[in-house]
Design brief:
With about 240 residues, the protein is α/β, with parallel strands linked by helices. A seven-stranded parallel sheet has the order 3-2-1-4-5-6-7, sandwiched between helices. Helix 2 links the parallel strand 2 and strand 3.
């Protein structure tokens, strides 16, 4: 990252799972980090102690998204990267409003990245050729769809397309790419039967853990040429 290292990396949804692992990875490299979080977890205090700037945010409304952007702008004059990790996973099921499900998925996976990318442009630009990055987290279901999570899959597909649009808009100063994971790590509550069923869905038969995603992020930040692409981290699952 050269002489741009002192500009912080902003990670949305940095309080749990992959977002939390990414935050600690960069903090361990003495890279300044800003994370958004919606709810206070013990991990948030751990991030603060490690040196991260943690900003509470509610992305369920456009006002909440833009208020968060203003807090970020009051904290730093520049960003090294913006990593859109915040996500939700709502299914269509009896007794739930289809309109609410769709609007909720679009709000977190489309509105939030769209508004934040625009609101924080001045922090990303002005640092030189390929000196900043935006990374969107999409999903392997963008390719195959989902019968139980239709709104979720559609919102991630919109974000995947937005990756290419922002890459066109922001080149050559800012590279914009997407990561499309499948099973990366289990929840502690997942039982053995579920875990085996999930592993059987991929060609590689493992849950690789956060390092697989972190290594890819490191590559994307290091590259001075790769932009507008989606990188699958799915163990060959779509080929099953």
């Amino acid at each position: 990252m050269g002489n741009t290292q002192q500009r912080p990396i902003l990670i949305t949804g940095g309080g749990r799972r992959i977002g939390l692992a990414i935050a600690h990875h960069f903090l361990n490299l003495h890279q300044p980090v800003i994370v958004s979080y919606r709810n206070e977890y013990p991990s948030i205090e751990g991030l603060r102690k490690a040196g991260a700037i943690c900003i509470q945010a509610d992305f369920s409304t456009d006002e909440g998204i833009l208020a968060f952007a203003e807090k970020v702008k009051s904290t730093t004059n520049g960003l090294r990267a913006l990593i859109h990790n915040a996500s939700a996973w709502l299914a269509e099921k009896p007794g739930t409003s289809l309109s609410d499900t769709l609007s909720g998925m679009l709000q977190i996976h489309v509105n939030a990245p769209y508004l934040l990318n625009h609101a924080l442009l001045d922090l990303l630009r002005g640092h030189g050729h390929a000196a900043a990055d935006i990374i969107h987290f999409t999903d392997y279901v963008v390719e195959r769809g989902s019968d139980k999570h239709i709104a979720y899959a559609a919102s991630k597909a919109a974000l995947d397309n937005m990756t290419r649009s922002f890459a066109r808009k922001l080149a050559p100063e800012v590279k914009v790419n997407a990561i499309a994971p499948a099973m990366i790590l289990f929840n502690e509550s997942d039982d053995a039967e579920y875990r085996q069923q999930a592993l059987n869905k991929s060609l590689m038969k493992i849950a690789p853990g956060e390092k697989e995603v972190i290594d890819l992020i490191d590559y994307l930040l290091t590259s001075c040429y790769v932009t507008g692409r989606t990188f699958a981290v799915d163990g060959g699952r779509p080929l099953r």
